[in-house]
Design goal:
Length: 89
């Protein structure tokens, strides 16, 4: 996922969180803590060692959206951002 400024959004804040290799439930705890403090309009970019399917369900229920891609064996990159009113997942 590439996050870059656009004409409608001249500055994009990205917070990077690396939770690779942490034992469960630490990756999920760190992600949820980071989301709680994420500035409005910012994106959380998570580096993790597996796809966090349970996390997706939890954050979607709380109004977050996500995009993920596998970068290699045991390497995932997850972008998480807050949906604004009127946006679709």
């Amino acid at each position: 996922m590439t996050i870059a400024p656009t004409e409608s959004s001249p500055t994009v804040t990205t917070v990077v969180l690396d939770v690779r290799g942490l034992p469960p439930p630490e990756p999920m705890q760190h992600v949820l803590e980071a989301l709680a403090g994420l500035p409005a309009g910012a994106t959380l970019l998570v580096h993790i060692h597996r796809e966090p399917m349970l996390l997706y369900q939890m954050i979607e229920a709380d109004g977050w959206s996500h995009s993920s891609r596998q970068l290699g064996t045991n390497r995932w990159e997850i972008g998480i951002w807050r949906l604004e009113e009127g946006d679709e997942a």
